[in-house]
Every structure is written in C-alpha cells, then in structure tokens.
Amino acid sequence: MIDWQSLLETLGIFGIIAFMIKKIFQNWMNKDVEKFKHELKQEQIKYSKLYDKRAEVIEKVYELLEDFNQKMSSLVSPLQMAGDLPPKEKLKIAGQAGEKFSKYYPKKKIYFSEKINELLEKINKQFREAWIDITMYPQDTKLLDRTSQKEKWEYWKKAWKSVSEEIPLVQKEIAEEFRKILGAN
Hints:
The chain has helices at residues 4-76, 87-104, 114-135, 146-182.
C-alpha cells in the first residue's frame, strides 16, 4: 500500500528544492541581465561619443573644404566682378584657406574610411595642381612676353576647369560619404 504521508513529504521536499533551485537560477539570471544592461549602456555611451566626435570632425573638414573651394573658385574665375578683391589678395586668401584644409584633414584621417581618405587626398591634390597652375607665372601679366602670357592663360583655363568641373564631382562624392556616416541620406 502507498504511504501517502511519506510520498507527500518526499514531494514536498522535492518541491521546496525545485523552488529553491528556480529562485537561485532566476536570481543568477537577473544579475546577468543587469550586468548585460549596464555593459550595453556603457557601449552606447562610448559609441554615442564617437559618433558626436565624428560629426564634429566631418563638419569641420567639410567647412574647410567648402571655404577653400569658394576661395579658389573666386580666384580662378575668368569673370572677375567690379568691387572684387584684387587678384593678389584673392591669391593670399585662397592660399590661407588651402593651408587650413591641408593641415587639418590629415590629422583626422582616423575618423574616416579608406575611401573617404582617398577622396580627400584626391581633392587636395587637384586643388594643389590648380594652385600651381595659377602661381606658375607672375600675377602681373605686364611682366610677361606674349608667349608667356598665352601660356599663363592656358594654365589658368586648366585651373578653372579643374576647380569648376572636376573638383565639384569629387566634393559631391565626399559629401555623399559624409551623409552616409551621419545617417542623413
């Protein structure tokens, strides 16, 4: 015959043990979940700060790039408006803008992909070549003979083509890559 009292006591002991094991397991899991939540929050903070820093760097690089582009466009434009700064002054201002851009972005390469760094190098090289083209001859054309004036004009046209047609294509590509990073597509 079944000893019900003994069976109930045994089941009660197993029930209590099962209950205790369940509580220990839940407690252990809760600690792991809390630890995971804390670690996740730390990672979110870290990546949020990195994102913010990248956004600042992108903003500054693009600002310097656009400033340099505007100064170079004004300098090499075949159409000079009345009231514009003299060419010598434009040359100085464009040179300063180029120097700022050329000094800043290489220090921030770590924030960008290889593709963006290659694009920044490419556009910097294009600006440098345009700069060389327009500074190869003296600004005052009166100091040049007819052949040199003609050569200077050819180099100037080459610089204008680069600044007005080629560089904007690369700058557009850079802007698109920056937008991808910022999530502003």
